[in-house]
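chain below, 290 aa
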Amino acid sequence: GSDWLDRHDDPVYCSRVLDIPDEELWAARQALRSFLFNFVRERARNRWTQEHVSAARVVAAGTMFDQNVLTLGFARRFTGYKRPELIFLDPDRLARILNAPGRPVQILFAGKAHPADDIGKHHLQRIYKRALDPKFGGRVACVDDYDLHVAHFLVQGCDVWLNNPRKPLEASGTSGMKAAVNGTPHMSIGDGWWAEGFTGQNGWLIEGHADPNDHGAQDWADAQAIYALLEEQLVPMFYDRDAKGIPRRWLQVVKQSIGTVLPRFSARRMVKEYVAEMYVPAVRPQSVAR
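prediction:
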């Protein structure tokens, strides 16, 4: 409704998202995906015409992406504990998932590293090389010059927001919150906000079982968990359509994502709780004393 800005921290009000007709929600998601890929292609076109970059770099920028394909987004600050390259640990298995006939997957990366973070810079460089690798069939891409404008398109247009930090080092993970309330469900390690935000119905939990003190074993287990989620849950759910071409099961996750994340993870809810539970009680005794 028109009053959503004043009521978006109300769980009952937000639950009304479950009543949105699937056809309308799917049309909106399709439109947002189209906006994203038009934006990506136009940026790549500008690089080609203005900077005369190579054809391989044009492909690595996402020009071969298909807006009808399940798209994962990974966009944030690049640094070691966020494990940006985790999904590439088993490149052969990943390539099979990305290039599966009739049900492919594509991954869109974007981000920046702190100028003093050499590890983060190297992650970016290596992922860009992956985007150039024909093995992945043009289904891995990097959007450069990441900023708020780029993020605006990504959090709205991707189908899934991937987050795989090394637990327990994730403080929050606000990009996932923004994506979730825009109808892009979260797939993440149970750390940061997702440790309390995941309900079992509003996204996917990456659970690799290994000794957390053995980083190599934990990385491998988490990567395998990502592949299994894609193969067994996300891909079938996204591509299973009814006679009208609507992925009903997928849209239930989208609705749960919006309806459960918006009221709990918003600045409005946070500020109201601070006022009610901390600021007002702190001021009240002084008022009485006067």
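The chain has twelve helices and six strands. The mean pLDDT is 94.
thats it, cya
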